[in-house]
Amino acid sequence: MPTDHEQVKAGSWRDPLQVNRRSFALMALGAIIGLSLAGYSLFTVRGVSSLSVPAEDVALVNQQPISRSDFLALLQTLYGVDLSHATPEQRRQVLNDMIREELFVQRGKELDLASVDPEVRSALVNAVELEISESAITAQPSEATLRDFYAQHPERYVAEGIMNVRDWLFPVDELPRLAGSQEALKATVTTPDVLVRLHGRDSGKTIGDEFYFAARIHLGEQLFAIARELPEGAASSPITLSDGIHVLYMVKNTQPARLDFAKAYPKVLTDYRNRAIEQLKAGDESFLRKRANVRIADDLR
User: What residues contact residue 71 under an 8 Å CB cut-off, 6+ apart?
Assistant: First the structure.
């Protein structure tokens, strides 16, 4: 009879341990082949391949495409050339810049910079607001709608008033000599000799024609409130302030007048769109708040 060694060599008898080792090796080899085929299939899918770049892109960075159209636009912006006239160095520089940008953007997302960087947060908020407002910005309301809006807000569509007022300032102790009729005050502030005798001087608060809003700033609220009611060629009663006695003389006073619809149209359209934008923003904010889990500190509730 053959020995055990001869039986094993002839293959008529196998060690069970050796059989198990061979089976495991075959299974492992099959798994590796399967994974390799799956990996090849995965990385050759259009748009995600690390081996080939889709025709509409110029590169893939961690499977994120860099658009060919963006590449061509940047090439034109930086160098003023199209692809056929760009040098290899120009192409390489633009592509490297775009890859660098994409890498930094991806890293920024990993670090969640948008949540901490004020400029990034502001840019994101502006982008969302612009997207919300787009329909209102591009909408063209009818003339009837705008006329209704114009009629509902008459105070908005008024031509700015213009005044030319002189502000004469006198010492406090001259007040008794300034008391008198409006005609006497007018004669006082329009006669150089009398002004000199009463030590009057121009305060310098106003110079020539000014819009009402500018005159209000220069004169201050108290003097402006008196000035706006003065007719042309009239002088005010003496006004006692901390710096002395003021007498206003109105050279020109063009009162604000309501604009007709045709003249007010550009502003009406702008105001109407701005209101629509604010309504859209408020609506979206309300929706986002309702679906968000917002918790507020106890001391700020």
Answer: 58, 94, 95, 98
